[in-house]
Specification:
The protein is α/β, with parallel strands linked by helices and 305 residues long. The protein is 50% helix and 8% strand. The termini are far apart.
Length: 305
């Protein structure tokens, strides 16, 4: 099976997509290792670019000991992993670890989820020239709302809009350059509102057949999601929650909507999201100025100084 890589901006449905994909009887899809594979790729010179067996042994040991891989709860057989990796072939190493995780689940095929791929898409596409890529995109206004109270967030509306628009659009452009055989974009709103049809598209794209078990993912949440991060997805063990779609229409202040649509309007248009008709307003301009002043929590830093 051709390796498949899922990715998306934070708070865009990457975790529920992981759960649904991993619930397929043939597909293993561990939780995101958040850039770990691509960080190790940058460190290849430290491991002799895997040119010798000794180099491979050292890198396999380093990866197996990494905190992110430990979250997979897989008893890796390092000797077997080393034997399956050809000299100089880093993709073999990624495949070996994923295949070991798949076999631990009684499966033979794997899919990778990593939100960091969004920012390293071109690099990953070069590492895996036969790889397929799926980007999940969610309305930037709902992404901004989801960041509120998110303990790993801390971004204001302007920061979310700016990063969301630049990252998702750049990745979409790279994906279109790769072509429809290697890149698929799906919408969070479709995944939640029409899960079976959307997952059927995903499966067809990666060469699999949709299985209804993909919608019965809730039972795997306690096994796959660590207790320490379970609070990040409080409704993950429930069926898709359609009330999470277009929350901005019900919950977002007009001034905040104005800021996001000004900063990310072209991206919203590109992905087919309607604008809320937030025209110029003094309140919106003031909110935008406040967002600019508080970017990167700079006021908090100045207060500490």
């Amino acid at each position: 099976m051709t390796p498949t890589f899922l990715f998306g901006f934070e708070r865009s449905g990457t975790t529920i997509l992981t759960m649904m994909t991993g619930a397929h009887p043939r597909l293993s899809c561990p939780l995101s290792v958040t850039g770990t594979w691509w960080d190790f790729a940058a460190r290849l010179p430290e491991f002799g670019n895997l040119e010798t067996r000794e180099d491979i042994i050292r890198m396999v040991a380093a990866v197996a000991a990494h905190d992110r891989l430990k979250l997979w709860n897989v008893p890796f057989d390092e000797a077997a992993l080393v034997d399956s990796i050809r000299p100089g072939q880093y993709p073999d190493l990624v495949h070996a670890f994923h295949l070991a995780a798949a076999r631990a689940e009684g499966k033979e095929a794997w899919v990778n989820m990593d939100i960091a791929t969004l920012f390293r898409f071109e690099q990953v596409a070069q590492l895996f020239p036969q790889g397929k890529f799926v980007q999940i995109v969610r309305d930037g206004r709902d992404v901004a709302l989801s960041f509120k109270g998110y303990r790993f967030g801390g971004l204001n509306a302007l920061e979310v809009a700016d990063r969301w628009s630049r990252a998702t659009v750049t990745a979409d452009r790279i994906g279109h350059a790769l072509g429809p055989d290697r890149y698929l974009r799906i919408a969070y709103e479709d995944l939640i509102g029409f899960p079976e049809q959307t997952l059927d598209r995903l499966c067809d794209f990666i060469g699999e057949t949709f299985d209804p078990a993909m919608l019965d993912y809730a039972g795997d949440v306690s096994r796959k999601v660590p207790d320490a991060t379970r609070d990040l997805w409080p409704k993950l063990d429930r069926p898709p929650q359609t009330d999470r779609i277009a929350r901005w229409k019900r919950e977002m202040k007009a001034s905040e909507r104005y800021v996001i649509e000004e900063a990310a309007g072209e991206a919203l248009d590109r992905f087919g999201y309607e604008r809320g008709g937030a025209g110029f307003s003094a309140g919106g301009e003031l909110h935008g100025a406040w967002c600019y002043l508080t970017r990167g929590a700079r006021l908090k830093r100045l207060g500490r100084k």
